[in-house]
């Protein structure tokens, strides 16, 4: 089986289509599918787990691609690898999120400091909500919805922090 680098070099998939731009793309999001399960939409050969969603001003659709294709499309393999390494790190951190030591607030709610934020999870109605506050006082956000379990509210807070950190790094 060819590596993603070799697929680009052999001009597989959309790499061989002249009407598809090969440079000048930018990444709008990175997603972890949990396991390799989607085919790269650029080389159309590599099965990927970490999906880089790429857009180009002269192409009508966003493409869901692997790391190497993303790097070639945007002209920086290092940037694509950095994004993917950050996503892998966040995935590992998320796996440990519930087992971390959560303190109990003065109101009796689970709370934790992580990534320059304080997360507090609390019962709200028949479910659970969460508040995320930047430690520097710049932001305070409350979950818009209720979550059926305490753990789901904790994971939702983690995922929201991940989105906030991704916005800062773009």
Describe the 3D structure:
The chain folds into 2 domains: 4-92, no CATH class; 103-169, Transcriptional Co-activator pc4, Chain A. The strands form 3 sheets. Strands 6-7-8-9-10 form a 5-stranded antiparallel β-sheet, covered by helices on one side. A 3-stranded antiparallel β-sheet has the order 1-4-5. The protein has a two-stranded antiparallel sheet with strand order 2-3. By secondary structure, it is α+β, with helices and mostly antiparallel strands. 32% of the residues lie in helices and 27% in strands.
Provide key terms for this protein:
170 residues; alpha+beta; Transcriptional Co-activator pc4, Chain A; 2 domains; three-stranded antiparallel beta sheet; 4 helices; 32% helix
Order of helices and strands: HEEEEEHHEEEEEH
Given helix and strand content, the structural type is: alpha+beta
Number of helices, counting only DSSP H or I runs of 4 residues or more: 4
Major β-sheet annotation: 5 strands, antiparallel
User: How many distinct beta strands?
Assistant: 10
| Neighbour order of strands in the largest sheet | 6-7-8-9-10
Distance between the termini: 34 Å
Shape: elongated
Mean pLDDT: 91
Low-confidence stretches: none
Q: Name the helicity range.
A: 25-40%
Task: Report the C-alpha radius of gyration, rounded.
Answer: 20 Å
- Whole-number count of domains: 2
Strand content: 25-35%
